[in-house]
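QUALITY CONTROL LOG
STEP: pairwise intake check
CHECKER ROLE: data steward
CRITERIA: each record must contain a sequence immediately followed by its structure tokens, with no blank fields

ENTRY 1 OF 2
RESULT FIELD BELOW
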Amino acid sequence: MSDCKSRVPCLDKEPLVLAAGPPPQALLVVRGSAVFVHDLGLAQQIVDKVIESIVPLPSGLALSLAAPAGHGWRAIVANKKAARKLWEKFEQEEKGEKAEKTVKVEVPPIDAIKLAELVTDRLVVVTPTLVAQYLHGHDIGRDVHGPHGLVPHDGILRRNVALHAGFNTDATMSTLTRAQLGQVQRGRGLPYAH
């Protein structure tokens, strides 16, 4: 072993030279039974010397190298949090700009009779797919989660648009062509029929 009197092995006898620049933080900090080394090279030297001198590690003694300063899990979490706050600030500013640029469009009110017609039309469009799902599920004894393979693609397209899109138009779903249904499904919508 070395000529040190402690059980911890000594480092090389060469002096530690620091580069010029801002004052460095402490390279070695002892807190309780833990020793924090803030230089990865120095930490590796210490761990290598300890491993050389103590072949079987006593119980309760563990050696590990942590990430360099600024690269540990706390720094990563802090960086993600800062980036998230910056992104949220950017989104809020962008929403503010969009709100200023938004043009209000006057939409004519819809009367109760027209509303009942539109809702009834959508229910009529959805009914064949629901019936097909129910009958198939009853036949096989399991739940059926969609009408795919049970009704033609045109029926599925009409059902999807009737359930999920086109609520900003007063066109009836049963009268739209496939091209118009695709247009509504992709969010382009249809003009209001006045």
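ENTRY 2 OF 2
RESULT FIELD BELOW
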Amino acid sequence: DTRDGGIRLTTRLDPAGLTAGMDTEITVCCVRLPLNSQANDPRFLIWAPRGALLAQMANSPLVPLQQIKSVPGIVRGNYWQGTRLAFDPPVAFSQTTITLSLETAQDLSDEALITVYMPGITRVVDRDGAASFTTSGSDWMLFQDEGFWNVTESSFTVALRPDAVLAAGRVVELRTLPSEFTLPIGLPANNAEFLVQARSSDGVDEI
């Protein structure tokens, strides 16, 4: 029921519905899980009210509303713990250095591709191709030497090195070279069109 998030099942009278002392397993298909949930979440409840026919029978059972005794935890899928984009200088039509700060909530490995989409940003050399970037400290050991700029998508992609693992909770900064990109006439703060994603090394699967 989309109104209360409940699933209603009706037992049959003949043969009799559920037998006392006997486990009954029911498989329900095609439902969408919540984003996350703790193990044995108290919000998962079960009850058995009297049906229209059972109400006519003497001593008909009624199971009061109670918490389901065993519910597995639901772990949130892969996501970014934190992302931040900065421009230096942040001036309209200026050539700028772009800094992308990333913190992932799970490990990334297997030469994963990280792509940031920046509509409105243009490259001074307006063509697809390799684009250099720098990092802080030893973070350069995580990434392959060059990124890739896609003119059509206004996207910049970097790849992890073979055997490198970007650990969950580790914050990394990627910086483009000075004066390689140009800002538009204006951009709103926290532009919802600026996106970042991670994909498999072949670009097929979204991580």
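INTAKE CHECK: passed for both entries
DESCRIPTIVE NOTE, ENTRY 2: Residues 52-58 have pLDDT under 50 and may be disordered.
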